[in-house]
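Hi team, as promised in this morning's meeting, here are the two structures we talked about. I've kept the exact order from the run log so nobody has to guess. The first one is mostly here for context; it's the second one we should focus on when we meet again. Sequence first, then the predicted structure tokens.
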Amino acid sequence: MPTFLAPIAGLVLAAGAGSRYGMPKALAQGDDGTLWLVRTIGTLTDAGCSPVIVVLGAQAAEARALLDDFGLIPSVVVAQADDWAEGLSASLRAGLRQATALPSAPIAVAIVPVDVPGLRRSTVARLIGTLPDGTGTGTWEVGPHTLRQAEFDARPGHPVVIGRAHWAELIGSATGDTGARPYLRSHEPRLVDCTDLETGLDVDTRD
């Protein structure tokens, strides 16, 4: 197992209204009745992320009540994106600000949107170094300058692991509904192939 310099936090982006889906995805559930939000929190926790930060926005009170019903408050850190209507970047900024403000700042965050309900523990673990990486070279340490992204059939996806040395610039530059994509394009993260683990597909609509 690798030696972590500090905790690696999970960061769930769940503030959007889900206009194409028809409801906030923080309230969505799978065919088995499991809430996407609860499943994602569990996946990150099981992979070794601690703490897990959840960013809420649209219908935040309802989403927070659900977390409370499942006994996830106060173990989950809730961040509020009051400007959630701006798009994904608002969630990202709120989450990174919350990570920065934690009493013991994590060395990095593993970021996933709530609308990837097929996310597996093994995928997260590979990205944060608790499982062998896609090249078969074994585990590797996560540090403050880490910038790492999962890919599936050569398609970039989630999780994205971002070391804390990048947070301030991301908070200052992320705008609109693009999240971290422009930053990742210009900084060239290490891509970790996870095609053997899952599809990495997100869910935009109910069709």
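And here is the second protein, the one for discussion:
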Amino acid sequence: MVELGRDKALKLLAGTPVGRAVVSHQAQPTIRPVNHLVEVNGEIVIRTHAGAALLGRAARSEEVAYEADTLDPVTRTGWSVVVTGAANLVSDPAELARYLTQLTPWTDTEMDHVVRIRADVVTGYRLVGGDACF
């Protein structure tokens, strides 16, 4: 397993359309698959709905995590990136309109909120065939 630098990790993250938002909900970890985009500064932007646990965390600027990966079980290769930072609601009307256009929901749920996750801590690893992960 090879540790990746911040820039390489964010580049890999930007190249995949789906990841997992991780929040604490009722003292338990909650993980939800979502699509995202990565801004130039490394911030993760996610479109979500009114009842989402992530939205509540963003309203309070709480710390959350975001993970994405590409793994090949046959060759035992791939990568994994985790971004940790404060989640915040996007409230600027121009930004909100832009993100709502750029991020297409994968479900029929009305998704009219956008959350931005600061990239305070970025960790990434490339898996090389045969390496032990843990």
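Starting points for discussion:
The helical segments are 6-14, 53-59, 93-102.
The longest helix spans residues 93-102.
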